[in-house]
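Q&A log
Question type: sequence-to-structure
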Amino acid sequence: MRIGLIGASGHYAAVLKILAEEMQGSGSNQSEAGRSPAGRSGRRGHSGPAYLAAIAMTHETEKAKIESVRRHPAYLKGKTVEYDSAQTMLAQADLDAVIVNPPYGWTASYILQALERGIAVYSEKPLATKLADLELIQKKAHQTATPLVAMFELRAHPVTATAARLVAEGAIGRPVLAFGQKSYKLNPDGRPIWYADRELFGGTIPWVAIHAIDWTRFITGLEFAQVYASEISVAAGRLAPIATAGAIHFTFRQGGTAAITFDYLRPAEAETHGDDRFRIAGTEGVLEGSLPRNELLLIRRGQGTIQPPLDETKPLFRRFLDALYGKTLHGKAEMPMTADDAIASTRAALWAQKAADEGSLLDIAEGKDVVG
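Response status: OK
Response body:
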């Protein structure tokens, strides 16, 4: 199955690792699915395991990362063809799927081009940095019925996945309050200069806070109704314009509220790059999760504190490939999320960024926002 890579500005490395495993025949999903590589085929009928068939650089700041891609086993084993532009690659490479990873302000354009050609998309988030572009993506995804999955990989974290299952099973009753935290090291010298360009970067909320926005929807099963947000920039030097801290307040359509904080203030001396946490409170109990500690606590009325065993999970990109292959040992595989689901989290992030820019409480325009 032929996979293309557009750009090298996001979390493409984890995807390349999985592609290399696919080609080596050592990926865990291969044995779980009971398939041999020769028995696989993608949407366009290409047989064999998924491999990196084509790449295209999108911005001059990607040169060093593209060079590292050239040394990656997924590139070396796949006899990857390089194209001078993503447009040419999409037109000529006969791809089953494409990984979209350009500077974030360009993501929507490449998604639309891929969907128009019926090429399945696994895209960096946010899917768009402008609400108008996001609506075009939703319309095109519906028209073409082409798979579109966003890199909300934290859904596959055992802590997040287990919390979502427990809420769905009623472990905390009706969820009515959520808190999420996203904290990163800034490392300004390690980030491209276009982070300081709002048109290309899109904002800290749709780049950083969006993970907590998505896991809040994913865990609670609730949708957002209104949003207020504020942010501040205390950075200096080449990335001085970017917001380095802020908070978002959502109300849920079904009742209740959520608060999310985000920052680039984590000290360089911290043990981990990020500190991701959540707290979900319901009518019968509370869930508290720490992703870097791989820890989840369930506090139930009348039962006290429980540390539930964490679910085994599979990376979203593996599930994306499974669905493209079409079959597993247990029957037809489903995409890890629908296009509408990915779009709903992106929409909420863009409305939150708009609220921060305007200093206003905003109603989030309704769409087909269904977790799935």
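Response note: The two ends are 25 Å apart (CA to CA).
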